[in-house]
């Protein structure tokens, strides 16, 4: 069966065509122990891994931003990543005609003009059609 990584949306992707054991192996690189977690003897002996937080489901769904890390790990453990195909099934971004903003964009609402970095950030999101801005108040 052909192995693919399918981009489902802007955040999630799915590893298709991999066996359950392959998914389990691959998910090891995106699993971690929560800080301060109490490990029982069964975990310390390697019998269970129930206390691990996994960032990949047993069905192979994970986050797009983890793909480079996962592919590096797959190379490291001997998978042929050249044979894995990337399939983009994300819905198209609507083609909206949104004008760029100037420094007076929120002047009526806030009483303050936008600072240059705020204006650049908003315009970058408009031009890129997606993005997240994190600014202090």
Share of residues in strands: 5-15%
- What is the helix/strand order? EEHEHEEHEHH
How many strands appear in the DSSP assignment? 6
Low-pLDDT parts are none
Query: Could you say which structural class the secondary elements and strand pairing correspond to?
Result: alpha+beta
> How confident is the prediction overall: mean pLDDT?
85
Biggest sheet: strand arrangement: 5-2-1-6
**Tally of DSSP helical segments:** 5
Largest sheet: 4 strands, mixed
Radius of gyration: 22 Å
Helix residue percentage = 25-40%
Q: Whole-Å distance between the termini?
A: 52 Å
Shape: elongated
Detailed description of the structure:
By secondary structure, this protein is of the alpha+beta class. The chain has helices at 20-26, 41-44, 67-76, 107-110, 116-128; strands spanning 4-7, 12-16, 31-32, 53-54, 61-63, 85-88. It has five helices and six strands. It has a four-stranded mixed beta sheet, with no helix packed on it. A two-stranded antiparallel sheet has the order 3-4. A hairpin with a 4-residue loop joins strand 1 and strand 2 (12-16). The longest helix has 13 residues, at 116-128. It is elongated, with a radius of gyration of 22 Å. 8% of the residues are buried.
